[in-house]
Amino acid sequence: MGEKMRIGIAGYGNLGKGVEYAISQQPDMELVGIFTRRDPSTLHPIGEKVTVYPLADADQYVHDIDVMILCGGSRADLPEQGPALAKLFTTVDSFDTHAKIPDYFAALDEAASAAGTTAVLSVGWDPGLFSVNRLYGESVLADGATYTFWGKGLSQGHSDAVRRIPGVQNAVQYTIPSEDAMAKVRAGEQPELTTSEKHTRECYVVLEADADAAVVEETICTMPDYFADYSTTVNFISEKELQEKHSAMPHGGFVIRSGKTGENTNQVMEYSLKLDSNPEFTSSVLTAYARAAHKLSVSGQHGAKTVFDIAPGLLSPKDPAELRKELL
Amino acid sequence: MGEKMRIGIAGYGNLGKGVEYAISQQPDMELVGIFTRRDPSTLHPIGEKVTVYPLADADQYVHDIDVMILCGGSRADLPEQGPALAKLFTTVDSFDTHAKIPDYFAALDEAASAAGTTAVLSVGWDPGLFSVNRLYGESVLADGATYTFWGKGLSQGHSDAVRRIPGVQNAVQYTIPSEDAMAKVRAGEQPELTTSEKHTRECYVVLEADADAAVVEETICTMPDYFADYSTTVNFISEKELQEKHSAMPHGGFVIRSGKTGENTNQVMEYSLKLDSNPEFTSSVLTAYARAAHKLSVSGQHGAKTVFDIAPGLLSPKDPAELRKELL
């Protein structure tokens, strides 16, 4: 193996920590440092020897870093940091606001093309690996239907919505794919299904001392957009049980393509993820795509790229002949 | 949509018929003709207006065909036809003799590079989509183990082996993935499993009039390599039942990557196919990759390519902006 790929991490929440772990598992990568908007002395990286730099000084390290992995959030951080950092570095990010992807792509493409860098956006599992499977599915089975189911997984947005209800001290919400709906899809029935027909919702709620459980349950189950259209179950538990049993961030889901070939033959392609940690998995995907971003950049393929533009072989530390021999 | 991609089919068995069907489902492709070593007048394509040409005359049609899809067998046909046709056309094939892929790749690469064509080899589901999933799996979850299970599916080789036993009039054999083994893998246990621990075998046998069922069953279950190491069940049925219930060619299987991230977090990625017709599905994969082969060829990326070298977006008739908007 030649020189190691030099990686920087921008942002150090759950995603940044996951990337720090993931880099340590990759044989051909080394972590140059973590960049943060916070006071660097307040950060405590997992690796004892890892250096923390002010994000504002990132431009001083353009010659020390091959790929900067952006670990900020899609709402406030990435729309600004993405194009700014793509002017300095080849980047990878997990931008996941579906409706804004075309605008974000355009901003990154302009910045990266002008700077001669490569900016890989919207990497993770959805968008990301799920997107790739939607694409393989509809390309191969041209006559068919694609279904994405999410869960079982912790939904941060829905958990927050429950926590805002008066009388609720703490809460988590799990999105659960409907077994009935999945069975129909797997049987090749190609049903028409709304998001609420594909999923049920399960809440674990800690009440405040004087709260009325019946009122809280009613408020949850009738909440427009979030719960009203769904089959929802509400479980009341203690803060202790919530901390012990519901502190992890599991997630996952299914992409199923059901199609017909020949006269009328059923064919089903299914992809699924069962993740005990949603952020750590997303970080692992980001890190594998950092390798692809570096290879693209070195070979002069600059500008914004998505998972659709990236040949699978670029994700691996193995060379093409090894891949053909071992994995094909 | 611009001009349609012009496709030729070389070889007209189950795979060639499947490709003929698959082309009719793709909005941007048209079938120019079928090329055969048999007497063209003896072939009856599904499409009434489809022309059949002698394969020996293929060189007269180099300007009429964008991609030739090779539907011959891996043992006798492709090693010879692949390089010969890659000198004339951009090609796609389903070469699946794993051990001989490096040599076949080299022969195709030499022919295609010299001719300025693109030769995409070993396309289908295994090798093919399963290979891609093995690659995504180990690239993302660097610390883990990959498992491929095949079935439930009809195995031609094992069916033939049973048919050769004295006293057997007809037979089919299904390979079935072991539920126990899959459960362990899905639970993140990362067990070490041999092929025989991952699968069981199920035979449906029609006896000749004077045959001894006990002897036939014993002969099957103790057959070295094919059955001796497996848990095998043998069912005796009538020729009528065999024709009615066991004439289809279903197949499928699972690629599961189980890995650890962070401190010790389990993550499981699973890909599966449930195919009512193995050859029709392989044909559909070949046809989608024909589109990619054409795009690569037009953009000057010549030589031999595998599924690892091909960005997913190239498989789709949609343009990159559409893909980002609809599928990312």
TrEMBL record, chains A, B:
Domain Meso-diaminopimelate D-dehydrogenase C-terminal: 124-277
GO molecular function, one term: diaminopimelate dehydrogenase activity
SUPFAM superfamilies: Glyceraldehyde-3-phosphate dehydrogenase-like, C-terminal domain (SSF55347), NAD(P)-binding Rossmann-fold domains (SSF51735)
InterPro entries, alphabetized: Diaminopimelate_DH_Ddh (IPR010190), Meso-DAP_DH_C (IPR032094), NAD(P)-bd_dom_sf (IPR036291)
Known catalytic reactions: meso-2,6-diaminopimelate + NADP(+) + H2O = (S)-2-amino-6-oxoheptanedioate + NH4(+) + NADPH + H(+)
Record pathway: Amino-acid biosynthesis; L-lysine biosynthesis via DAP pathway; DL-2,6-diaminopimelate from (S)-tetrahydrodipicolinate: step 1/1
Enzyme type, top EC level: oxidoreductase
Leader peptide range in chain numbering: none
UniProt keywords, alphabetically: Amino-acid biosynthesis, Diaminopimelate biosynthesis, Lysine biosynthesis, NADP, Oxidoreductase
Family annotation (NCBIfam families): DAP-DH
Entry similarity comment: Belongs to the diaminopimelate dehydrogenase family.
Quaternary structure and partners: Homodimer.
Protein's UniProt name: Meso-diaminopimelate D-dehydrogenase
Originating species: Sporosarcina aquimarina
